[in-house]
Amino acid sequence: MSEIKLNLKGMQCPGPIMEVFKASKKAESGDVIVATVSDRGFEKDIQAWAKKTGNEILDMDVTETEITAKIKMK
Amino acid sequence: MADKKTIIVFSGDMDKVMASLIIANGAAAMGSEVTMFFTFWGLNTLRKAKKIKVKKDFMEKMFGWMMPRGTEKMGLSKMNYLGMGAAMMKSIMKKKNVNSLPDLLESAQMMGVKMIACTMSMDVMGIREEELIDGIELAGVASYLGEADEANVNLFI
């Protein structure tokens, strides 16, 4: 199990979700992707993505300028 | 099994084509199988930016000359002002770090989005296969309907 950090600040929709998807393809089961994003839509988007792909959101940290989501790979 | 989404790209307007490509990329990232059908003005999305020498009759030449060769040359559906609007939009998109249309198109192809050019539209507008970018399938309405039957989202843009 490893942690995969993604700095996706500055990227616009659909960039962040696509990068998370690409990382998830390379990740192994149990790995945690930690994505930091500045696009405000990501907070809702990553939840929809996780639900659709069956991955689990462990934690979400939302500040005024960025969103950090921890997603555990199924 | 992955679910399917189908998108018909009828419009050749920059903003509408952009919306279709964003949805296609997003759907692929959600794990869906995506098929895009390009018909009528939408076909211009798939044209190579470079002029390709092919045999055409007069009307076909006129069509080919008046329509945009690829996403880079498209105009906005509103406030285009002879291309000034599109140029302004492109510069804003760049500043705000939004992916350009050529990038979105390439990314969609890399994500495995299936792209189909409507052969009837190609014939009507005199667009030849050689004028289209690589990796495009040619088909008709039955192929689209076959795919749409299996899809749970179907858009007409």
How would you explain this protein's 3D organization?
The complex is a heterodimer of chains A (74) and B (157). With 74 residues, chain A is α+β, with helices and mostly antiparallel strands. Helices cover 32% and strands 34% of the residues of chain A. Chain A has a single domain (3-72), classed as Translation Initiation Factor IF3 (2-Layer Sandwich). Chain A has helices at residues 15-26, 42-53, and strands at 3-8, 32-37, 56-62, 67-72. In chain A, strands 1-2-4-3 form a 4-stranded mixed β-sheet, covered by helices on one side. In chain A, a hairpin with a 4-residue loop joins β3 and β4. The model of chain A has no long low-confidence stretch (mean pLDDT 95). Chain B has one domain (4-156): Hypothetical Protein Ychn, Chain: A. Chain B has 157 residues and is α/β, with parallel strands linked by helices. The interface between A and B is medium-sized, with 14 and 13 residues.
